[in-house]
Amino acid sequence: MSRPWRPVAACLQVLSALLGIAAVPAAATEPATVALTYEQAEDRSNFIAQVRKARQGDTEAQWQVGLTYAKLGDPARALPMLQSAAGAGQPRAATLLGWLHEDGRGTERSVEEAKRWYRFAAEQGEADAMAALGRLLLQEKLPEARAAARQLFRRAAELKDPDGQYYLGWMLTEAAGDLQDDVQAYGWFVKAARQGHIGAQLAVATHLLTGRGVAVDTKAAGEWLLRAAETRDPVANYLLGRFSEDAGQGHFDEARNSYRIAAAAGHREAQFALAAMLAKSAAEADRKEAAEWFGKADEAGHKAAANGLGELYRDGAGALQHLGKARTIFQRAAEHGDPDAMYNLAGMQDAGLGGPRDTDKALEWYARAADQGHEKASEVIGRLLNSSIKTSALGLKGFWQ
Predict the structure, then answer these.
(1) Cα 90 from Cα 87, distance rounded (Å)
(2) What's the pLDDT tens digit per position in 146-195?
(3) ∠ CA 257-260-264, rounded to 5°
């Protein structure tokens, strides 16, 4: 959701220290001297004045102080100020209070309490709250809740709220029958995208790439992806990486850079994609880095990452090659259902690489992979069945069926 505040000013870091929110190092023996600029000193004085007014019951001051504490990462101090302001009818305070309850910041997480505050603010015309309430209603997956969410999104969208515009566009693309309208959806996505909504920017790029509701325009799609990726959003950078990689070899450096940003942020698909690109390099440093990213993607639960790591250890040169590790990794991935790992494990077992030769087990894993549609495994099984000498030698022992 779009948060009911603008980006934090640089002076808030100074305020954080001055208000006692930042911890003082235990080793410090004398109070640190903070040199303030004129503007920072002015901000500090203004904030202290706002706190005094808030404590005297000024609703607007309570909202501003609560907002400042929330920006500073101190929701426990923000809550009482926001509750006072929201209780007195301040809709922006109620919206922020809903978000704190939804995310469990400074208080116990409660979706129902969040909806209560969002609804209160929405009834007073707060567009942020309309979009937030609609989003929570969608999670109920009930026809009447979905209809109510759609109405809220449209009201918020018409008030130029980017979240409302984005979710209305999403509902128009996902609707069934006559309610689906890709052209109108694209229009709402563009409105939200122009306001900096990252999800909408990615949606616009997707529509331009697929020609859904608009003519295909690869160049414009790339520009929207780049605009979204400049925020260092991991999803945007992953998609930009895919876009650049698909553009061909001349864009591989751009793809790697985008994947690396997303991978460093923990995006497992980007970690796998970056590893797969680096694994194709002849440079030892690249292949070592590929092993690291395959490992991270594997730890994050990527189903194909373990097989990629196993192939690196199996096919690597010098210090990177480790057949025993490769066979162990293939075994683990095969047991978790990866057909590529089943095929690779069977090949190592059949050749006696990284461990003892075991043709019975090899045939079993080839058959399991073939059952899952692995073409190369099916070809191996076919050759074995068509070779009377080989089949006789194996006696079809251990055959998966």
Answers:
(1) 7
(2) 999 999 999 999 999 999 999 999 999 998 777 899 999 999 999 999 99
(3) 150
The range of the structural domain enclosing residue 356 comes to 303-401
Domain membership of residue 271 (yes or no) is no
For the chain, the maximum distance between any two Cα atoms, rounded to a whole number of angstroms, is 95
Instruction: Please tell me the pTM assigned to this model.
Output: 0.81
Report how far residue 307's alpha carbon sits from residue 331's, in angstroms, rounded to the nearest whole number. 9
Q: Which of 8-17, 34-43, 296-305, 365-374 has the lowest mean pLDDT?
A: 8-17
> Reduced to 3 states, what is the DSSP secondary structure of residue 353?
coil
Q: Is 212 helix (H, G, I), strand (E, B) or coil?
A: coil
Determine if residue 89 is left, alpha or beta; phi over 0 gives left, psi from -120 to 50 gives alpha, anything else beta. Answer: left
Q: Work out the angle between the directed axes of helices 162-174 and 182-194 (0-180°, nearest 10).
A: 160
**Cα 85 from Cα 69, distance rounded (Å):** 14
Residue-wise DSSP of 146-211: HHHHHHHHHHHHHTT-HHHHHHHHHHHHH--GGG--HHHHHHHHHHHHHTT-HHHHHHHHHHHHHT
Among 124, 147, 167, where does a domain finish? 124
Q: What is the DSSP string of 51-109?
A: HHHHHTT-HHHHHHHHHHHHHTT-HHHHHHHHHHHHHTT-HHHHHHHHHHHHHTSSS--
Q: 240: closest CA among 192, 273, 213?
A: 273
Question: Has residue 137 got a pLDDT over 70?
Answer: yes
Q: Total domain count for the chain? A: 2
